[in-house]
Amino acid sequence: MEWAKEDVQLAFRIFLRLLENGQIIDERELFYAYQRSEVRQILEEVIEAEADVKIFALGDHLYLSPGLDNRTFGYTNEELREKMKLRTNQELYLAYFTILCLLAKFYNSDDQTLASRQFVPLEELEETITGHMRRIQETPPEQVEEVSADLQLNLANSAEIWLDLPPFDDTVKNLRSARNNRISFLLRVLAFLEEEDLVQILQEHEVRLLPKMEHLVVRYYFHSQRKDELLALLATDGAFTQRLGSEQHATH
Amino acid sequence: MIMKYWEEMFAGFSERMQNIAVFGPLLQLSQKTSYQEYSLPALGLAVMLFVLEDMLRTDKQSTYDNIARLLQELIHRYYHRELSHREALDLTYFLVKEGLMNQGRPHQYEYPDFGTGKSETYKFHLVELADYQVEEKTVLLKLSTAGLELLFKTKEMYNELQISITQLYLRQQIQKGVFDGALRTVEELALAVRTEKERIRQLEERIIQDVLQVAREHELEKQIQRINEQLQREQEVFKELTELIDHTMEQYQQGGLSEREERGVQSMMTVRRRLLDIIYEHESLFKEKLRVHQLMLQSIEAMILTSFTTKVNFDTEFLQPAVGQNASINVLKGIIDPILPIRINSFFHPGRALMPQYLQRDEEEELTTQEVLELDARRLREEEAKERALQLERLSRLESFLLLLLRPLIHHPEVLVSNILNELAVEDYEKHREITGHMDFYTCLVQLHQLGVVPLYTRNEVDLLVLDDLPQVLVKLAASNPGIHGIGAFEVIATDRVITLPQGYVMSDFLIRRHGNNGVG
């Protein structure tokens, strides 16, 4: 198959602009270029395949997602820890868990693709996370230990850090920079998402999803093949964990 | 027979139940255990009216702070109690966040639909967060469509009829000379047009998020049909209203004016200016209609290509298994990776050492005022150049539309737009596709239609400086093309016929008629 030089240039220009900003908004020329089937073909067959990214169009917006475990364009755990101003991997784990809980607050319906609500109060998010952490802590200790020994880091050993923090400290002046309470931790993680135009924190009390987040969720996750990949990832981890547990049991 | 009677009786039952349901959250406020000393439903309604008033005035004042001030004042006047601002703010949060906004979740109302025999759940918001602005730290509130309709149902009118009825009020007020009232009515009209636009925006968002559901419920067809009917009806009335205002102004200006009448003329001028803005907004609904149509087609195409009919429940499918299986950090990262930002590596080039170096500044390379000014000026110049290029492109497109529409009048007294397009389809199919697929073409036709009889003057024949795009291109065309100049004047008249274009757009067929220089056909 032969592609025209101009189409390849346009496809590449779209890709570079997306790398720069993560999204293209209000750039008619690039959006029209994306509408051309030749350009789209180059993006899908060459750029997406080789760079392991996914490009989506929604309305007149274009987005780029690094996808699952992208070694070139995805952040490593260490880099993300720095970006979110977190000290340990346990905290980073809690940050990932917070983001997952946040998404679960908005997308918790089996038959709808729309976010189920306008905003979530931070207190409610904190309570949800605490609920899950308590559930994990109530799991019989030997089972947790067996797993954590080899996987080093998981929900169980992060639960303690979370539950040791008080929910809130009303003596703190700058909530976002404090490190001694759960709400401040949430604010720090959410501030990272806010910088990326994914969420908005309202008066340090509530959080709402912004269109970029909603569009990424709908276009990336609501896709049978990609969803299966994620479920498989979760299942493999679970199976691995269980296998590890039983092997260790046998050794003991 | 009984069946038919039954069907007739329960036709639209679901809609009736939904109309009742929206009052639920307000009435349920009276069952709250806090603040029992006040009538919370009345305070809730007062807050909604405050937000409505703010939307009418487009003041952007409906913040929690301002609502707290309103409540402070209301409680002082009616209950003779003094609330501190903090107390009023607490009451506001309770009333708005918990009561009217249900902590961000939609209000839900379950009922049996006797019309279909199924059980239904109606989900709605009354008050919403206004469009986000990340820089603004204060929260602005607005009424949702359901919230607006609730208020219209309590006193005024149903939303769908809102524009027409408001137009009627305006006409009465102008005729009676109640100009301050007219100004308010004109603002209500502006809100009604904005609400219509908001509905289109919401539909777009729904298409983006769930095109299948929209297709299933025929939402797009219903909305397009409503817009078509409204546009047709309201455009006529808008035109009449502008004429009525002009006529009233003329009457006032003839003969000596009393001081009161002079004030009236001032208000009238404001009403006229606002009405023109609204008419422009109203016309853009037409463009929105085409945009939403295109979006629907694109989304369906995307859905077919990716076969995404999959739904994801983050709570039960990802979060709970992750908790249950004590998922490792990399699995959690894997799940949220798709929404995380892109990382780009920066590299150092040794040649950089030879480039001009700036002295290190105290604050992370903060620019001096001079540099900021230079940067701003450069950005401004670039923006202006970009804007100029876009403007030239727009004008040249407009010129090709006008040439296509007016050229037949050189030899014929009148021509239908459908005939012009049919001929073009035979002569040059690509161009036909390009023109009928371009939204500006329809806007151009609608604008021409609203101009009435349009004289074709050259620049020398026009006394005033022409600034608007359309007259500017008309003047240019008349000057450069003697045949077009020879037409003298023309009018674009709407007919009862309808054209269906290949892309599925439906529009009225317009008749373009030649008039002599004296405006006589």
- Overall pLDDT level of chain B: 77
Radius of gyration of chain B: 29 Å
Q: What is the N-to-C succession of helices and strands of chain B?
A: HHHHHHEEEEHHHHHHHHHEHHHEHHEE
Number of helices of chain A: 11
Order of helices and strands of chain A: HEHHEEHHEHHHHEEHH
Number of strands of chain B: 8
Instruction: Name the poorly predicted regions of chain B.
Output: none
Strand order of the largest sheet of chain A: 1-3-2
Structural class of chain A: mainly alpha
What share of the residues of chain B does DSSP label as strand, in percent? 5-15%
Greatest interface and its participating residue counts = A-B, 92 and 62 residues
- Number of contiguous helices of chain B: 20
Based on CA atoms alone, the radius of gyration of chain A comes out at 21 Å
Mean pLDDT of chain A: 82
Quote the beta fraction of chain A.
5-15%
**How far apart, in Å, are the first and last alpha carbons of chain B?**
58 Å
Percent of residues in helices of chain B comes to 55-70%
Shape verdict of chain A: elongated
How would you name the oligomeric state of the polypeptide chains in this document? heterodimer
How far apart the termini of chain A lie comes to: 61 Å
Structural class assignment of chain B: alpha+beta
